[in-house]
Each structure stands twice: as C-alpha cells, then as structure tokens.
Amino acid sequence: MSAQVLDGKACGAEVEAEVKAKVSVLNERGITPHLAVVIVGDDPASHVYVGAKERACERVGVKSTRIDLPADSDFSKVVDVVEKLNSDPSVHGILVQSPLPKGMDELAITDMIDPAKDVDGFHPVNLGRLVQGRADGLVPCTPAGVIRLLEWGGVDISGKNAVVIGRSRIVGAPVSLLLGRKGVDATVTISHSRTSDIADVCRAADIVIAAVGRAEMVQADWVKQGAAVVDVGVNRVDDESRERGYRLAGDVHPDVADVAGHLSPVPGGVGPMTIAMLMLNTVTAAESNS
Amino acid sequence: MSAQVLDGKACGAEVEAEVKAKVSVLNERGITPHLAVVIVGDDPASHVYVGAKERACERVGVKSTRIDLPADSDFSKVVDVVEKLNSDPSVHGILVQSPLPKGMDELAITDMIDPAKDVDGFHPVNLGRLVQGRADGLVPCTPAGVIRLLEWGGVDISGKNAVVIGRSRIVGAPVSLLLGRKGVDATVTISHSRTSDIADVCRAADIVIAAVGRAEMVQADWVKQGAAVVDVGVNRVDDESRERGYRLAGDVHPDVADVAGHLSPVPGGVGPMTIAMLMLNTVTAAESNS
Question: ipTM surpassing 0.90, yes or no?
Fold first, then answer.
C-alpha cells in the first residue's frame, strides 16, 4: 500500500484561485489587498520564506511591501515600524517574519500588531477566538492549511482520533483547537516531549499531525494502517552528497507512506498551504477593514 | 479502596488566605481591590452564584459592587454598563454573570470587557494567552481551580495522560491548554459528544476532568484504578424526596470513588475553587492596574 498524497501544491492552487476571485471583487470596489512583511536581519531561511510569500502575492493580485530591518535593529525600531503599519489604512495585513534576532521579544511584537491586521493569526485575540470555537476570523495559516488539506484529501475527521505531536503556539496548540472544535469534531490528543509513550499514542490515531521539528521522528511502526498523516516539519539534515551540504526532511519518516492512507509530502505539502492561507487571511482582512 | 477527596473547600481556603495577604499589601498602598458583578435577569442559579461570590469578596477584603439589570434589558444597556465599568478606574474586575437572557449575545459582551479587568478570563486575549502557553495573567477561574486542586492533592500531572470531557470555552478548552502547557506537561485528550468511544478514552487516563454537564455520566468502569478524577459538573436531577424537588449531581457517578485514587466532590470540589480563583484574579487585576 502506498499512501495517497495530500498534495499541498494542488490544494493550495485551489485556495489561491478562490483568493484571486475575492481580490477581483475587492478590485471592483477600488481596493487592492495589501500585505506588509517586516523582516529583521538576514536569516537565510526567512528570506526564502518571505520570497515565496511575495511571489504568492503577485500570483493572486495582493500588493506586497517588504520592510527590511538590519539584524542589530533596536526593539523600539521594530515597534515603530509595526505601529506605523497599524495606523496606515492602506495596509490590510502585517506579518513580522519569525525568527526575530536573538533576544528580541517575539511575543511582545505579536501583542502589538493590530489583531484586525494580524494575518499570521498569532495575536492572542485571534488565538483566543479558536478557544471559543470561532474560526471565522484570522486563523493561523499553517493550522488552517492542515485542516483544509485534510478536507481536500477527503479525510474523515468527525469522530476520529487525531493526535497532534508538538504544542507550539504557532502550529500544535491552534491545530488541536481547530481539529476538536464543533463542526470538525475530532477527538484530539496533544502530545509533546514529556509524553511518556508517544509511539503508542500515535498508533491509536486515525489522523496524525506531526509538528515537532525533529527530522523523521514519526516511524512507520508508529502509524496505524490507513491513518492520515500530515507532516508539518521542515528540518535540515546534514547531507554531504548535496552541494549545499544538507537536505530537507519532514517530521515523518518516508517509510510511513507504506502504512498511511494519506500523507502530505515535504516539501509540497503543508508549505504551500501555509502560504495560500496567508493570502486568504490577507484578503479576509482587506474585506473586513475597508 | 476509596478515593482521596480533592477537597475544594480546604484548598480554596488556602487560596483565599493567600489572596487576603495580597489584599493587605494593596491596602497599605491605599488600594482596595474592587469587583463589579453585572447580573441580568433573575435566573435563580445565577443569583446563588453571585451571592457566593459576594460573600467570598467579604471574606478576603475585596470590595464588591453588584449591578442588577432587569431580564428585559436591551443589549445596548448592558454594553453601556460594561463600558462605564471599563472606564471607571476604581473598578479592577468586571464579571458579567452567565447566562444572559435568551437571545443576548454573550460572546459580544465578553469581547467588550477590558481584558485587563476580565477576571472571568473569558476574553479572547486572555484565552489566547493560554494558547501561547502564558498562564501569568487572568486565567479562567474554573480551569485554574482544577489545576490548583490537582496540585494541592499531590496528583502527578507531568507526563501523565489526562482526558478532558467537554470542550466548552469556559472549562474544557482552557483546562486542556493549562494541563498540556510547558511546566505542567500532561498529554491531553479532549473528548466530547462526537467522540466515538468515550469510555475507552477515559479508561486510558491517569487524570479525568469531567466538564460535560451530564449528571453522573462518568461511570466507575470508565475509570482506571487509581486515576484522579475532577468533577466540574453541577447538574440538577429530579428528586421528589427533596423538598425543592431536585438534588445536585456532578458529571461523575458516586461509585467512581471506589476506583479513583483522587476524586473531587460535588458540591465542595471545583465550586469553591472557582470562587477562590476569581478572588485571586481580582487581586491580580488590582495589582496590575493600579
């Protein structure tokens, strides 16, 4: 058996087509959705991600503005930039690319972004709405993309046992809320580094969301025959056979494809979904605030 | 075997003693913590709860003001009252007693309360902080009380399997976040009405939090020998042998006491904890905003 591919490029393209249609409607009202991306320092992976987001904006007709700040910027400088963007009515979405330089308080910056422009969905107001079971606002992009990808793949969620590996504020915690909320209705277990029997927990699951950031941690014998597995991990693994010296690996071992019913690849699974959902959030923000 | 009692009266009294000490410190700075309770209509249970909260305020030295609005009050009238309390610097905590009259949008009122005065901890900002793993602010009272009661009872949480039955924004969802966050470290499963095998899920748990609102639903054969069981339910069950025609029952069947290692009673378990944590939140709000 080989798992059906949860193809994030194909599903993401569908989302982007929807976004494009929404952009057209906004254009007719004289509005161009506008995303501002703040990037502090020169983390190479961040620049790759931001580049991909800018290209997505071009594809769907969202205007993007990129604000590059040097790595040694003061915290107050970043605050300043965010506040200007908050008060600029031409900007609908604000994203401060993570990670910020060491020592800069990322949560404090997140708290400062106008929740109505928080297209990452990381502001406490937007996360708190998920606790309330409300998913009609700015939902974190990767968790929203995971749900959308499962639905796209025809994976049954209601009444199924889902296990989320990892409890980050970015992925693990919000995706567990989305999976368990009314209308989606999975029974959700959140496991993490302190879970004593993580392989056992995993084996009981119909749906596995791996968001832990450890290369190929989820083994084939952790996965129930036919389970749907979504791999959120993007890890660098040393590989001298590659010119760049590393390869990208997910949190899920490739052999899981022999056991799982559905599996999202890395790359080409959750990555494109995250970007597509960011475009959707930007348009949602533009619709609400104009 | 008979379960150790998770005695909410005793544990709550300890919390109240801490609160009293904090109130003394505030008094020395010329501050008296002040809780405003808004009650709309004449739901008898609500009046009982509000009365209990007022008595707790008296015990710990918190000033309480009660605003009674008639059941047929306009939504705008309630908004008006909340806004006045938001902008009144002498008020540190605001609580709008649930339930509001039928048809009145409770979430909209919750959204309106200044998060810094939201001593119920129900505002999205305060719930969202839990998703971020931050529990240093205004944490919902019942979930916070559940954790405190488990700790007080000497129940090991770290690395244990906890099952939360019920996914409400008031109890189930936030308590699952508190149990699973870093430093508390349970592996948490949230189950609900759509869970297919709730008894099985329950049997695998070292800790069971029953917050579903169905009288005596959790049976003795659902519970693992020695598990800790916290009963959040308060249900009215018809009982003609009582003068008032009903008795109060938890979500947990009394026979669970023969199997569980720890069990919180109803009444006298989570109820007093909720009130004690409300007092703690009121003082925390007064400390932060004065």
Answer: yes
